[in-house]
Specification:
Blueprint lengths: L2 H13 L15 H32 L6 H4 L43
């Protein structure tokens, strides 16, 4: 399995967190629906990550940071550390201001969230 496939698999496992991301039954009615929903959510997360990676790269370029093509080629939309699959969810649309996207962090500030 390629590294890209493994990354996608790990993201899917994080999203499908019940029973440690594993299916234990051979088959039960509605399993296709669950797997279809997992695929849909996985695609949404991948699109979200791709969109914000692109926005972050545009911001870095606009602020004069060097953005090398070889570094960009190694970025993956399958990152998952920022995704919280447990807890309460709100589906109300946030006020995103005139840009229509969440504000990005300042690259010159330290990452308080990193472990």
């Amino acid at each position: 399995m390629s590294e890209r496939q493994e990354s996608r698999h790990a993201l899917a496992s994080s999203i499908f967190h019940g029973k440690k991301g594993e299916l234990y039954q051979r088959y039960y009615k509605g399993m296709e629906d669950q797997l279809g929903a997992l695929g849909l959510v996985l695609n949404c997360v991948t699109l979200w990550n791709t969109f914000y990676i692109d926005a972050a790269l545009d911001q870095l370029k606009a602020q004069g940071y060097p953005v090398r093509d070889e570094d960009v080629a190694r970025l993956s939309p399958f990152v998952r550390a920022h995704i919280n699959v447990n807890g309460t969810y709100s589906f109300s649309r946030p006020d995103l201001g005139p840009t229509g996207i969440r504000p990005l962090r300042d690259p010159d500030c330290g990452d308080e969230d990193e472990e």
